Amino acid sequence: MSTLPMDPEQAARLARRLEHEDTFEHETFADLELPGRELRQKEFYRCTFQRGQFQESHWRQCKFEDCVFTGCDLTRARFDAAALRGVRFEGSKLMGIDWSSVSPNPEVSFEGSQLRYASFVGLSLRKTAFLRCTAQEANFFDLDLTDADFEGTELTGSNFRGCVLTRTDFAQAVGLVLDPARNRLKDTRVPMATAVSLAESLGMRVVGFGAETATPRARKKR
């Protein structure tokens, strides 16, 4: 639930608490401006971050459990060795983040967020939801994306390499290009445009799609 904007003095007090205290539970942090700030070994339980300006911030060895980031700007933020359990990012800017350094087996979800130029490498992201996000030119390398859901996500220019895509749902994704020689596909759901592009890359022409029609060609005269 959204809160009213926090007055500057109250926001400043919260910022000081973030710097000097280590554990936070059931807290709401609204309208904080901490660009470039480093926070180390903080623990957050069931906390909500709203409309925060956290560009290029560094959350080193922090622990987040059942937390929500809503309408925050975390462009190029760093989460080195951060533990993420049940963390949701909603309507937030997460551009240019390298998620590869988070603690193993993160439990995260992304909804309506900007993931342009993000990198996900060497992680288990089973059942992760990427819903209605913008993930153009993002890198997805060496991931387990079993049962992940990319509903409504824009993936133009993104790269998938070395990924396990068992039952991954791309059916309503946009701009997806997959190379089956570089990923493990099984029961992977893809949109028609992706299937056609793959067939064409293998030298096939899909009848009834695009310029092709199902009309039989006239036989050549001998």
Explain what the structure shows.
It comes from Melittangium boletus DSM 14713. By secondary structure, the chain is an alpha/beta fold. It folds into two domains: 8-111, Pectate Lyase C-like, CATH 2.160.20.80; 115-203, E3 ubiquitin-protein ligase SopA (Pectate Lyase C-like, 3 Solenoid). Helices cover 10% and strands 24% of the residues. The chain has helices spanning 8-20, 192-201; strands at 23-25, 28-30, 38-40, 43-45, 48-50, 58-60, 63-65, 68-70, 83-85, 87-90, 108-111, 119-121, 129-131, 139-141, 159-161, 164-166, 184-186. The strands form five sheets. It has a six-stranded parallel β-sheet, with no helix packed on it. A four-stranded parallel β-sheet has the order 1-4-7-9, with no helix packed on it. It has a three-stranded parallel β-sheet with strand order 12-14-15, with no helix packed on it. The chain is elongated and about 65 Å long. The protein starts with 7 loop residues before the first helix and ends in a 21-residue tail after the last helix. The model is unreliable at 213-222 (pLDDT under 50).
